[in-house]
Amino acid sequence: MGDMMPLNVLPDDFYSQFLSTIAVNRTDDAIRTLMPLETRPGLISLLVGKPNSASFPITSLSFTAQDPVDPSKEIPIQLTPEELAVGLQYSPTIGIPELTDWLYQLQEASHGRKRGEGWTLSVGNGSQDLIYKAVTSFVNPGDSVLLETPLYAGVIPLFQTIQCDIHEIATDAQGICYGCNPTGMTASLERRLEVLRLAHEHNFIIFEDDPYYYVYVYYGTSPKPPSYFSLEREQATVGRVLRFDSLSKVLSSGLRLGFASGPAALMTAINRHSTNANLQPNSMAQVLAIAVLSRWGHKGFFEHTERVSQLYRARRDVFEDALRRHLTGLVEWTTPVSGMFMWFKLLLTEGEEDGEGDSEAAIRTHAFERGVLALPGTVFLPSGRKTAYARASFSLLEPDQVDEALRRLREAILDARNAAKK
């Protein structure tokens, strides 16, 4: 893809129509705007109220990380004084340069998108942080928003709070996104190309929230479909995809590090929100992450994520085997190709498998009383309508726990069936 014709990138002023009133009214932080100038050689800065490092009590930091090739081996990491100084101090709003440079290279390796092609990248305190900032920057009350359904329950309140006009777009085994939470499905190449075509035809922006991208590798037997971020490079004009990635699923959820990639004008709006809200992503978390990533290299990172994918595939298989043993005839499901969730339909009325029941009582009441905690499908639907589906996570449980949990769930479904007869 490196030798393709120059891209026809949408101009910055094209995106003015997509900015929310809040985003338009936000102003730059006068201090943060000038901070990049502090790196100019010979300049004496009287700008930022940075605490003197002599006041910081942490004087050294060392830890170990798995060898990405042989996880039984450990790589000792001792932060240099320079690395520690960066981690303990304020840092740029978009992320520390060492990490953003590494992530730009990752996006090229993963999606074929090179730096300088009309897009920029910013680090956030988890991808949820960046999604929240994007939603508030580009959505006004009353605006129409298309949301795949079901979708990650954690983003539904963002749109409901803004009181936008939500239109649910149904998904099936062919789409819409990579490793969808809760369904575990992924969109086919044909479905992605059709969505991109519609984005151009109807002038909308695609939010590609893809935290399970690196957990797809060994799930499916077919090749991983290219991302929207990658596919749009082949379109007549480029700049309708805003992509969200996460290090939570492959490095550490506690570090709270995600990154967004997209048109420069849209990223500027997100960065301006950051300067107004929390100044920057966590410096020390970034230093810890790049300390590991730089020593692994991109090759080591991909080797690590392949192993993570294998781990979750094995756990999925254990969970699915237990589903067959305990819940055949009581639930229906499609095998997930990514992620860490099983999305299944509860057959709550015996002999009426095509009927649409309501999993709410079965999951919240009967399953809980039997000692199982899961989520009814209604929480993944923006409308909150009833559904027979439920979501279960298989990321942490050992085989004996899975077996016991699904044995209990079987009893809970039978309880719900009996209650429905009364």
TrEMBL record:
GO terms for molecular function: pyridoxal phosphate binding; transaminase activity. Its cofactor is pyridoxal 5'-phosphate. Residues 89-172, 180-409 form the Aminotransferase class I/classII large domain. Keywords: Aminotransferase, Pyridoxal phosphate, Transferase. Pfam families: Aminotran_1_2. Gene3D superfamilies: Aspartate Aminotransferase, domain 1, Type I PLP-dependent aspartate aminotransferase-like (Major domain). InterPro entries: Aminotransferase_I/II_large, Class-I_PLP-dep_aminotransf, PyrdxlP-dep_Trfase, PyrdxlP-dep_Trfase_major, PyrdxlP-dep_Trfase_small. The keyword Disulfide bond does not apply. One of its GO terms (biological process) is alpha-amino acid metabolic process. It comes from the Eukaryota. Belongs to the class-I pyridoxal-phosphate-dependent aminotransferase family. This is Aminotransferase class I/classII large domain-containing protein. It comes from Steccherinum ochraceum.
